[in-house]
Amino acid sequence: MTENSRIFFAMGRPLLTILLLAALAIAGTFLFVPFFPQNPDYHHFADTRTIAGIPNFWNVVSNLPFLLIGLLSLATIRRNAPATLFGVGLVLTAIGSSLYHLAPNDGTLLYDRIGIVIAVVPLVAMLAEEHEIATLVIAELIGIGSIVWWEANGDLRLYGIVQFLPGLLILALRRWKLAPVLVFYAIAKACELYDRQIFDALQFVSGHTLKHVAAAMSTFAIWWWLRERQPIALVESSPPGSGVRSSPAGETTT
């Protein structure tokens, strides 16, 4: 057995699952899913009302929850690279999505998606439970690479993998405490798909605005999960003999 083989088989189940599922997702998508371009009609949102001089007002200001949750995460979650990038990514998502909705087009959509990728990818590293930094670097490179690939070729297949892989991993690894993430994400995608129908039915709010709210709730569920894992600082400051210790997954046990 080679040294590389020993390293591979020494990996924990979560990391092996991530590697195998990611490889299968990328290979399967590019083999069996045809070229997937950006739909030019995507930018034609139902609610285009200008309020207080702000075009597409509600689609712009509904990004505020991302900003608040991002700042909350940066203020309350332990200082490691994945958690920090999660918070930073949410702040960038709020800014990028707001810029996009002020003037929706393919060029400004780039700002929106960069923030989303930076925020979503760290969850993969958090689920790995080992080699977090290496996993984070590889995952972020693939995430940013999906944006570069879309910009260069107009193909969204790799970006789609980056969006949906964390949800698949939550199911594959049975992280049921993160189930609300999947529920709110599914609601967000449904609201996005039925943007016009929801606006026609409710009149005062569109599906895309509700999509932002539901997606923000999905990120709030991630923050809640991170908060329950306990900041490392709390573990390190616990007095000797208190019975508090850190588990291999970075969670605090008693």
Describe this structure in words.
A two-stranded antiparallel sheet has the order 1-2. Helix 4 (64-76) runs antiparallel to helix 5 (81-102). It has a domain at 12-31 and 40-175. The protein contains 13 helices and 2 strands. It is globular. With 254 residues, it is mainly α.
Number of helices: 13
Rounded average pLDDT: 88
| Global shape | globular
- Helix-strand makeup class: mainly alpha
The main sheet comes to:
2 strands, antiparallel
Give the C-alpha Rg: 20 Å
- Low-confidence spans: 3-10, 231-238, 242-254
Number of DSSP E strands: 2
If strands are numbered along the chain, what order do they take across the biggest sheet? Answer: 1-2
* End-to-end Cα distance: 39 Å
Order of helices and strands: HHHHHHHHHHHHHEE
Percent strand: under 5%
Which range best describes the helical content: under 10%, 10-25%, 25-40%, 40-55%, 55-70% or over 70%?
over 70%
Question: Strands, helices and their partners?
Answer:
Blueprint: H1 3-10, H2 13-32, H3 57-61, H4 64-76, H5 81-102, H6 106-120, H7 122-128, H8 132-153, H9 157-172, H10 179-193, H11 195-202, H12 207-228, H13 232-237, E1 245-246, E2 252-253
Antiparallel strand pairs: 1-2
Which labels suit this protein?
254 residues, disordered N terminus
